[in-house]
Amino acid sequence: MGLGSRVVIIGNSGSGKTTLARELARRERMPLTDLDRVHWQDEVTVKRDEQVAAAMVAELAAQPRWIIEGVYGWLVAVALRNATTLIWLDMPWKVCLAGLNERGPWKGAATAAHEAFLDWAKAYRERTNSTSFAGHQSLFDGFAGAKLRLVTRDEVADFLTKSAKS
Q: Which domain of life is it from (predicted)?
């Protein structure tokens, strides 16, 4: 699969989106946007106005080359209008939890906030909004461009190896 010039990476928190996006952006010399930086203002407790966030993503997605990664399905939907490729990291919870534990609290969040975040991430398959398994499944199913669903770390590693040879 050719990577294309406008790539969106989705998945649960801890699935490896940022790691994969950074590697692909480095290799392909493409600008990278983490949707956490769009969704949240200075801290993870202060959400950006949704219209402002959507407009920011639309502006980024109008560029000719980029990688955008994140869990926020409603923002991903904005980017997908211009995307050439969609990659879904559909990892089991134990893999995501290991990734989150390795990363540690985001921006030094307090223990209680981090535990609440872990509970939120664990509920990925039970939630039904756009930032859930069901939301990501809908985005994936509805995307007409090139798409890839990776469900293990080995599949991600194989993808990276094969895409490096392309």
A: Bacteria
